[in-house]
Amino acid sequence: MRQVLATKLSDRPVMGADGERLGTVHNVTMNTTTGELVDVVVNPEGDLHGFDRTDAGRVRLPASSIQGLDDYLVVNPTRETWKGSEA
Fewest C-beta atoms under 10 Å: which of 6, 20, 36, 62? Predict the structure, then answer.
């Protein structure tokens, strides 16, 4: 993926590769040693069960689930790629 400033991701819509709108980007987490993107924290739309969440109820998407970036941040919506626990 090309380099993108974190500020350009804030409030960007998140869509699954299947076209389902999942929410909007709230924040990102980085590895401070390597600078590598670890997670994208999403304000979810609707019921997204079975995924790792923050204390505020936001969903954590691992960077490995990102498939593309344009008008939307496109992610693989399969739960196997998410750090989920059962709801």
Answer: 36
Q: How far is CA 58 from CA 2, 33, 35, 52, 61, in A?
A: 25, 25, 22, 8, 10
List C-alpha distances in Å: 5 to 27, 34, 55, 56.
Answer: 12, 16, 25, 24
Strand 66-69 relative to strand 13-16: parallel, antiparallel, unpaired? unpaired
What would the mean pLDDT of 18-38 be, rounded to a whole number?
A: 90
What's the chain look like in SS3?
CCCCCHHHHCCCEEEECCCCEEEEEEEEEECCCCCCEEEEEEEECCCCCCCCECCCCCEEEEHHHEEEECCCEEECCCHHHCCCCCC
